[in-house]
Amino acid sequence: MIDKQNRVIFELIYKLIIDIQEGDLDVQLNDAIAILIKEYKSYGLIEKIFYQN
Asked: What is the pTM of this model?
């Protein structure tokens, strides 16, 4: 089961990606992901999402 903090981060990532894809947010996806990784690098969920092989 996912804890509350990781759930909020997951929803933030999901919303960010959807908003970028739908053109509601004028940011490059690669730039947004780089910022997420930098700001939330200490969270295990970020590692699981972006550092899997």
From this structure: 0.72
